[in-house]
Amino acid sequence: MIARVLATVFAALLVALVVADDSPGLLVVKGSGAAEKGYEIGEVEFLGVSVADQLVHYAGGATIPLRLSVDYEVRKPAPVMLNSRLGTEYWRLVVLGRDGVVALHTDERMDLSKAGRATASVDSAVADEKQGVALGKGAARISGHYYFLIDQENRQWLDVINPPALLNMPELLAPLQFTLCNLERYTVQMRGVESTWEPGGLIRVELIVTDADGEQFPVATADAVAKAGEWSEVLRPQVDWLGQPTGWLVGRLPADAAPEAVEIEATVSAATPRGIEAQTLTSRFAKGHGTRTAAELALSPPEFQPKRDAGGNLRETRAIWVGTNAVKTSAGIAEVVQRCKKAGLNAIIVDVYYADRLLVPNDICSQFGGIEEGLDPLAALCEKAHAEGIDVHAWFCLAYPNRDFGIEHPTMAAVDRNGGVIRNVGDLHREQFRDRVANVMLHVARNYPVDGLHFDYIRTKADCYCDQCRAEFAERFGKPLTEASDDEWTAWNQPVVAEVVRRVSEQARAVRPDLIMSAAVYCVMEWGARQGQDAPGWVRNGWVDVCIPMDYFSDVMEVRANEQAFLDALGPEYATALASGLSLYMDSGGSQISRPPDMVATQIHLVRTMGISGYCLFAYEHMSEDILDLLRTKVNAEPAVPAYR
Predict the structure, then answer these.
(1) Which end of the chain has fewer CB atoms at under 10 Å, N or C?
(2) Residue 208 lies in a domain
(3) How many CB atoms lie under 10 A from the CB of residue 423?
(4) Domain co-membership, 282 together with 320
(5) What is the mean pLDDT of each run of 10 residues along the chain (645 residues)?
């Protein structure tokens, strides 16, 4: 009976929601059907993930013999399974020395039908080049997980859910390393040891595999132990400050005295074309062999060399996005300014336009409700923030009107391929809609002492197939809009989006020449281009002063690749226009939780060491007290003025 009811609910356009409690591994699977009656179909806690082999055969192709296991406990049974077998449901894999992320599909079949602890295991994984880059040889690490599929017992998929936060946390991911290489033939050797040879000092060993093609790679991890007399120490994979494999296994010498010699034993398991093979290597190293200083072994992050003005002031944009609800009362405004000041931030980007509503009185659209009587929130925020030396930028979510917009304004709404109105998307190809969003921004520029205007959702958001778009596209490209390629969509959308950016920038600066124009854009330029974004072009044309890619990935390597692409596109002349949009939250099922403070600090340090001129944090509601304290005491201990000044 439950299965039949469940199938009926899902067939009626299920919208799945997964929420998390205090445990970062817990998912409570919930949703609603067509009747919008809530239901709850299961609860599971993820306990851990492991990879069985340290060497995994790879000689080309998309499939690897990866033995991966997920430990979990079903707290509330439901007739469903979770897996990562297709689509956007995959493990992220980073291969040392290769750009991009590999998307690995696995079919775990995590069975939620029986209560209690269980382990779901797979013996292979398939790389999906539609979702990521191709596989390649080298030391590799699993860097996190995207969605899980919800499958029925008959294997028909029902919906997708976000993984718990646990599967994107560094402490879980650190051991999930292995080396991809051709294991038709191979040898493994213990190449050497390095240590301070001081009491309590680091000791590390390097294992090398030579594969069938004669190529050598570090063995990313192994079951290894260092021993001397009664003392022993398990050696674990050493990672650099970005969490990347170094190819060394590391531990610490005894605290009382360094031994005269250390024996290291390492067992390596290999998933070969012949099956699973294991070998144990043992070597003895005398005290003094491979002596290094503590600094040489510590792999400390590079130093941040801040940019300073002629007066010695540190120049760095330190911004944060603040939602509308936080500034609807005088007390809320005071708290926002006080916390931002305490965190060492110097710019507040406050949401003044969302769902076709403005935070301030106007004659263009409706005003947000719930505002304290007699309060003008934006005016009050500007006064409070400016008194503390903090800039205020007005944030506009432009192509994202409310769900009734298409009904209330059918001549401005986008139309789908079948002629239906897309209720919550305005069509930037229509002059009337461009006028509306431009006038909203100009109204704020003319009436409030904001320091800048901030474009968001500055894109088409959806493909419009209205009669006007069809006719104009056919006239320009000589073919039906329904046959447009991605490149043609880009060429079609970019001019109208650019017109809004240019018009607002020029007209606002005619009134307020000192206004700073900024834009939140897709962190992967190809994603934004099809919807009309061209942030580097906007910067070069002088329409935008600060470009902020929304780089909310948990994995620092993805952030680094995306930000480097923007640096390359902007070139040295305009590189100072870049500020990285970094997240303060991480998804945990259908909920969002604040990130661990160290994760936030690492990403900020990353963009600093890349020479980027600042960052913007998303968002204020996720700036936990722990994150705020770390910003105050370490990350932003020295005050800074915005780099755009």
Answers:
(1) N
(2) yes
(3) 16
(4) no
(5) 31 34 78 42 94 98 98 94 94 90 96 96 97 95 93 84 92 94 98 96 98 97 97 95 91 96 98 98 97 92 91 97 98 99 99 96 95 98 99 96 87 94 93 97 98 98 96 98 97 98 98 98 96 98 99 93 97 96 92 94 97 98 98 98 96
